[in-house]
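Schema walk-through. Below, the input block comes first and the output block second. Nothing else is stored per chain. Lengths vary across the set, and this one has 190 residues.
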Amino acid sequence: LVAARELLRAHHEVTVFEQSSRVGGIWVYQEASEPDPLGQTGPRLHASMYASLRTNLPRDLMAFFDFPFDASGGGVDEWSRYPGHAQVLSYLEKFAETFDISRLIRFNTKVVKTVYTDQWKLTFETLQSEVTEKFDALTVCNGHYSEPRVPDIPGFSHFPASVMHSHNYRSPDMFAGMKVAIAGTASSGT
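--- output ---
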């Protein structure tokens, strides 16, 4: 969203491709998770959001430089200093609305191939077909938390209990009364 806005400010003609049906990327909460608890096989869901998620940064640090995360920008003054996923999504939607970015977005459109010769040739899938178009420039703004990474751990395949990646975690209910071990680095471990 920010890249689109900045390119517009520089008077470029902008087209945004979004594989989902709405603005927000990983901030769009989906109760469903992938059938494979480790997220290695089967259909891919973009969402990695869990029901009770709160940001690990205060909202004033998360805010875009000139679009505060309060009532003077895209937020609400009463929101928690560490907002939940619904507030972050609302902030992003307000940003897209305020700067008229949504009209530039082709929703339900997934870029599947890019080739550069004298121009960028993008092939993308829509709900109806596969299409190829040419563009002068390309900016890649992909979500890097949409595909689970599972390290190769010796003996892991013989672990005698259930294993899931944080990408597919939604709520603690399924773990009630159980002993749980969490292994991870960075955000997934937290």
